[in-house]
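Lab notebook, bench 4. Still working through the backlog of constructs that have no structural model yet. Next entry is a single chain of 347 residues. Request: give me the structure tokens for it.
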Amino acid sequence: MIQILTLSQKNEWMNYVYRAKDFDFYHTWTYHMLDPDDAQAFLFVYDDTDTFIAIPLLKRAIPETTLFDCSCVYGYSGPISNVCFSEISGEFMANFKRAFMGYLRKEKIVTVFSRLHPFFYQTPLITEFSNVFDNGKVVVIDLKTSIENQRASYNSRMLRKIKQLRKLGYYVKESETSADVENFAAIYNSNMLRLNASLSYFFNVKYFQSLLNSTEFDARLFLVYNKNNYPVSGALIVCTNKIMQAHLLGTRTEYLSDSPAKLLIDEVTVFGRELGMSYYNLGSGLGFKEDSLFRWKRNFSSLTLNYKSWRFVADQVQYDALMCEKNIDRNLDVDFFPLYRLETKNI
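Model written out:
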């Protein structure tokens, strides 16, 4: 049975998410409801009663055409199932592929892009379609080890800096008030301005409050204060199924030289252990490159996981036509998909 669940079907959507063997907050109805892009969120479900496979996507109109493509929310999503993908029969996989391809043809969907989850083994299904790309690595802190062992593995300069921040009077606490949320929104959005980010990376106070109020996952806000009790840095952390994600972070520009985010990361791991989390995903570098940001995160942990994305061309004829219309060389060496949307990239 095939189902196409939309945002008007919250209970049905979450029923599949909660039944999944592995899922993160990126799969939930609330997170898709809050997505800022002008796209139609849906959950494609193939279900035979005993086993199901579902994948959340965002359907977008391709400008100046009657065609569409699919992308995913910001973060790590990909397919979910109530059975390990490695244990699903080849016949069921083939039936899912046939059903999904039929939907793509019916809806005139040219391409599908989805970031896969670095903690979940989703590739047995996605390789049925091919076009799985290695995008790099994410840095992860193992919270199952003791805090002493964790800190012993820090880069020595990083450890000294964290101790110095404490001596200077900086401290971290969990924040819950409306004023705290407003402070974090101001800090985060000022960071996006400094980075010249596109509008899709800016969020209002209501967005942050909706994440923190959701009952589908456990979102928490942590702020770093200086000795005068002034909030200078913060992180919105989301905990789901033993995984803690560093979802959104920011530091006031005038305090970047002190790097209070170093203390923030260290202290959040203490909270994470108290919450029963097993891993804290710090993410990667900009564009998932092993850049200075990635190396900065590696100062906290040597543990990394591979991050992959699915870049599938469902209609090669239409894809080639769009590339030709945009006068884009299909062999262009740039990490972007689909290439016919390259001119709209703002960050």
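Notes after review: The two ends are 40 Å apart (CA to CA). The first helix runs from residue 10 to 19. Flag for follow-up if needed.
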